Amino acid sequence: MPATIRVHLDQPIGEVSRNIYGHFIEHLGACVYGGIWPQPGLKIAQVRGMRADVLELVKGLNPPNIRWPGGCFSEYYHWEDGVGPVADRPWRFDWMWKKPEPNVVGTHEFMDFCREVGAEPVVAVNVRTGSPEEAANWVGYCNAAAGDTQGKRRARNGHAEPFGVKFWDIGNESWDLGAEFSARRFIEFNDAMKAADPNIKTVAVGSSGWDENWNRTMLEIAGDKLDFIAPHHYDGWGERDPAAPPEQYYANMASAWRIAETARRTCELLDEMLPQRPQVGVSMDEWGIWVHHQQGLQHGYDLSDGLVAASVLNAFQRLCRRMKMANWAQLVNVLGVINTDETRAWETPIATVFGLYSNLCREVAVACEVESDRFTVGSVRPDIPDLPYLDASATRSPKGDHAALCVVNRHRDAEVACRLSITPAPAGECIAREMDADHWFAKNGPREQRVTVKEKTLGGWPEEYRFPAHSLTLFSC
Ligand code: AHR
Q1: Which residues are bridge partners to 396 per DSSP?
Q2: Are 76 and 126 in contact (CB under 8 A)?
Q3: 31 Cβ below 6 A of ligand 1
Q4: How many angstroms separate the alpha carbon of residue 329 from the centre of ligand 1?
Q5: 407 C-alpha to center of ligand 1: Å?
Q6: DSSP per-residue codes, 211-261
Q7: Gap from CA of 265 to ligand 1 centroid (Å)
């Protein structure tokens, strides 16, 4: 069957929040220490103690927001250990990841990083071993005027201007504590923190993958207080033998469907339970591909992983009415979209995808119909339905004079010929950027960039296009 994509610029779905292209850094492995802030003594170009090569790559991602300090690390972190002169800060033992924590990177350093790369900070407070008062003081420290008690402390530590942190995560993966307890704890923290600054937006712990009971309980108890609910979803399929049967490759492709299902069902639950609060959103503040458990959670992501990430971002755009924020876990080295060694930093195909979407996709999602043949994962992951080879999402500017269409061809071996229609067609030239490589498991490294982006100026929007096997094509005008 010939494939068809029909984009209807005159049928808006809703506004796309740029925060869906967000990232996450944690004091874990070589993400914060060693990834962004190099180990002491490493001779490498730096900007105020941060690796210049990493900063440059992060800026290329145009990150709307970055979440910190965890993750699970945040559940044992006491923020006051990380402010004031570095030499006076205590070393602590990190009970989560079982390592020393030198507290060299704290609130001021994280804010400096965010400012440098142009991202909004998202801060996760310690709900497990911290208190509402400690969290409220952190809000005050970040946001109060320099004359206020906490503002004075911040000013004494060198930053008179408030940091203006808007987004605050209350807790992380407290699934073992139960949904009811977590929801009540959320309310205590939320009330104390919003008393310190009523303008902040708070994020409540959501389910692990899709868990309706967890999300229902959280929304029943805290639904009139929270601004976001945050399910986490890690997925992926680890078989990467190029000689393995195609179902193994498609099992990884299907991870996008599983992650998107968690997002879709959480959005639907918000519609069902909080129709009177349409501004409440889903923040999937940890998502990604996690297939190895080796030390440091280092993953060398390949092209196939990049295509999974692109399909998930397509889904987030389509779900834009409730899908308001998301954070790939994580930014550097640990499950990282950027990897480093002692001399270089390089981007994985996932970083390339984030850069393309964050820089080129537009503000309003529009209807986009796709018809294409389907692949099967078969018995490798029996819960997964057959899915179309082509996956697409379209966005446009508010006036409709600019548009972007993202098309993933998940076919492992074949190009897909496709008829394209975009109505009303925007004037001007259209540029196609194709992310592709000679193999579906191609990776980049410190010295080679096997996954590349080819740019083609097409004149107007094409009526037909041949999407290369295992590729992402982003059309924009
Ligand atoms: O991203 C790594 C870890 O995965 C985070 O600390 C935790 O929240 C999740 O389980």
Answers
A1: 364, 403
A2: yes
A3: no
A4: 8
A5: 30
A6: -HHHHHHHHHHHTTT-SEEEEEEEE------TTS-HHHHHHHHTHHHHHHH
A7: 22
DSSP 143: H
- Encode pLDDT of 287-346 as tens digits: 999 998 877 798 899 999 999 999 999 999 999 999 999 999 999 999 999 999 999 999
Q: What percent of the chain has pLDDT over 70?
A: 100
What average pLDDT does range 27-44 have in this prediction?
A: 96
Q: How far apart are CA 36 and CA 387, in angstroms?
A: 38
Ligand 1 geometric centre to CA of 378 (Å) = 30
Residue 356, phi-psi category: left (phi > 0), alpha (psi -120 to 50), beta (remainder): alpha
Q: What per-residue confidence (pLDDT) applies to 356?
A: 98
Continuous H helices in 6-70: 52-60
Contacts of 477 (CB under 8 A, 6+ apart): 402, 403, 426, 428, 429, 430, 431, 461
Nearest to 469 by CA among 391, 411, 387, 388: 411
Burial class (CB in 10 A: 0-12, 13-18, 19+), 318: buried
Cα–Cα distance list, 370 to 4, 333, 391 (Å) = 6, 35, 7
> Candidates 101, 127, 172, 205: which one to mutate for ligand 1, based on the most atoms within 8 Å of Cβ?
172
Sequence-distant (6+) residues with CB within 8 A of 218 are: 179, 182, 183, 186, 204, 205, 206, 226, 229
H-run or E-run covering 323: strand 323-329
Structure-token pair, residue 433: 């950027």
> Residue 198: its pLDDT value, please?
98
Distance CA 187, CA 171 (A): 11
